Here is the input.
Amino acid sequence: FRAWVTSLNMFHRSITVDLGMTSNPMTVEWFNPMTGETRAAGTITSRGKQAFTAPFRGDAVLYLAPSHATS
Here is the structure.
């Protein structure tokens, strides 16, 4: 599991992703393809189903990747 990219459109700003197969923290980012802006959304550690809502209107890409942060 390296990365997961999902596109949303202006009518569907939220998505639920099942992270049940992951065991490590995940870094969350949003990308706005209209402006080229990437917005960090933190790190999640929960497993199972996780809901995400785009922080802006219009098309959005959700990017999840294993977190490389150390404690």
Notes: The radius of gyration is 12 Å. The beta strands are 4-8, 14-18, 26-32, 37-44, 49-53, 60-66.
